[in-house]
Structure formats: structure tokens, C-alpha cells
Design brief:
single chain, 270 residues, alpha+beta, three-stranded antiparallel sheet, 2 helices, 19 strands, elongated, Flag_bb_rod_N, cell projection
């Protein structure tokens, strides 16, 4: 019976973690470039129960052999193995702001191209959030103040806010080419590690190669919406809540059975 407590509790913990994940998705439904997380839930290894017995042989030395009688399988609960971002292209929203840039992948509906930015420690990170701005020194930055990098991994400094960005990422201001956006490309975006503030990194901090022209397209004056499906996320949240509640009722039933066992079984009536 005690094993039943652990099985029900593991189900409650898993559904609680799934609810936290879905809640975070809902909270970022309006965050530009956000990629929703999906959970991978697996069962713990199933155990095969056998009854151990012995059988005596009719010999002078009283020889006995071990005997195993199968009882059946026993599942020991579930756990959330990992969370994986869903790298699907989000819808585009027009903002008419020159500093807003949307990244469109040309090789299918998977988000394989990323803007390159520089974090506070000087490391190169990757993002799909093209909601950029220009700081007081004229550098193109993210909303949180990280430098947007060019194809040489250097911060992009603009003479003014009257600039244009071509489909291939070439930045032009007053008829002069200022630089080119640093766009990274990966064949396996699922291998990227997700960080806060919409940033991604490679597992070993290795830099991704620059994308080529036929892999992406830049749309100035637009941002990429979050790819969170609000209706589906709400449905999954309700399902996770019901699963949590069902495991809770099982746990309460085990608790009542244990209470009955302790208080009533073995009672001596005087």
C-alpha cells in the first residue's frame, strides 16, 4: 500500500510541473518570438513481481530448489523527463517601426534561423525576438539592452533611426551600407538550450554558423508573434488539473485505508 502513495504522489508532482510549464506559455502568449514549451512525460520502469518459494525434493539429503511464481507487473509512477521548445514559425504582426524586425524561415515552418545578440558577459546568444530599439549611443539593442550583432559578431551602431534592412539583412542608412545583421542557422534547433528573456545557447557554447540568403528573409516593420496556441494550452491546463485531482483522490483513498488499518485492524474487544 505504501508504494501506492509514491505512485499517486509522482503523478501529482508531474501534473503540477506540467501546469507550471503551461502557465508560463500562457504568460508569454504576447511575447514576440516566444517559442512555447512542451513536456515529455514518461513512466518509471515497470517491475515484474514474482513470488519466491521453495520445493523439497524426495531425496536423502533434503535438497530444495527455489521456485519463482510470476505475480504480475507493477508500475511505479511517472515523471517529467524534459521540456522542449516547439520551434514553429509564429505569425507576423505589422508595427511600422523600423527597429522591429521579423525573421522568416524559407526552409519549411521550423524556426531554424536566429538573431545573434551579445549578453552581459560578452557571450553570443540567439533569439527570435526582433523587437529591437536604439540606445543612447546609437547601438541596436534588444528590449532588455543586449547588443544586436552583425555577421562579424560585432555590435551594430547606427547614425540615426532612419535606416532600412533588406530581405537579406543588409542595413542601409542615408544611402550607405552600415553592415549586415548576424543571422545564425542550425539544422537541429531542438539541441539549443533555452535561457530566460527569450535567449538560446548551444550546449557547449559553440557558435552557430551564419545563415545564407536562401535560408531566411527579414521583414522590417514587423515582429514575429509567439507561437503559443491559447485555446490548446487552456485545454491542456484543464486536463492537467483533472489528472492532478484524480491522483489526489487516490492518495486520499490510500490515506483512509491506512487510517482504518491502524485504528481498527487488530483491535481487541474487551
Amino acid at each position: 500500500m505504501l508504494r501506492g502513495f509514491y505512485t499517486a504522489a509522482s503523478g501529482m508532482i508531474t501534473q503540477q510541473r506540467k501546469t507550471d510549464l503551461l502557465t508560463n506559455n500562457m504568460a508569454n502568449a504576447n511575447t514576440p518570438g516566444f517559442k512555447s514549451d512542451q513536456s515529455m512525460i514518461r513512466a518509471f520502469p515497470e517491475m515484474l513481481l514474482q513470488r519466491l518459494d521453495s520445493k523439497s525434493l524426495p531425496v536423502n539429503n533434503s535438497l530444495s530448489l527455489s521456485k519463482f511464481q510470476p505475480i504480475g507487473g507493477l508500475n511505479t509512477g511517472v515523471y517529467m523527463q524534459e521540456t522542449i521548445p516547439k520551434f514553429l514559425q509564429g505569425d507576423l504582426k505589422e508595427t511600422e517601426l523600423k527597429t522591429d524586425l521579423a525573421l522568416i524561415d524559407l526552409n519549411g515552418n521550423t524556426s531554424s534561423s536566429f538573431f545573434k545578440v551579445q549578453d552581459a558577459s560578452g557571450q553570443v546568444k540567439y533569439t527570435r525576438n526582433g523587437n529591437f530599439t536604439i540606445d543612447s549611443d546609437g547601438f541596436l539593442t534588444t528590449a532588455s539592452g543586449l547588443y544586436v550583432l552583425n555577421d562579424q559578431n560585432r555590435p551594430i551602431q547606427l547614425p540615426d533611426d532612419q535606416f532600412t534592412v533588406s530581405n537579406s539583412g543588409v542595413i542601409t542608412s542615408n544611402g550607405n551600407q552600415v553592415g549586415r545583421l548576424g543571422i545564425a542557422y542550425t539544422n537541429n534547433p531542438d539541441a539549443l538550450m533555452k535561457e530566460g528573456d527569450g535567449l538560446y545557447r548551444t550546449e557547449n557554447e559553440e557558435q552557430l554558423p551564419n545563415a545564407v540568403d536562401n535560408q531566411f528573409r527579414i521583414q522590417q516593420g514587423y515582429i514575429e508573434r509567439s507561437n503559443v496556441d491559447v485555446s490548446q494550452t487552456m485545454t491542456e491546463m484543464l486536463s492537467a488539473y483533472r489528472s492532478f485531482e484524480a491522483n489526489q483522490k487516490v492518495l486520499q483513498a490510500y490515506d483512509r485505508s491506512m487510517e482504518k488499518t491502524v485504528n481498527e485492524i487488530g483491535r481487541v474487544n474487551g
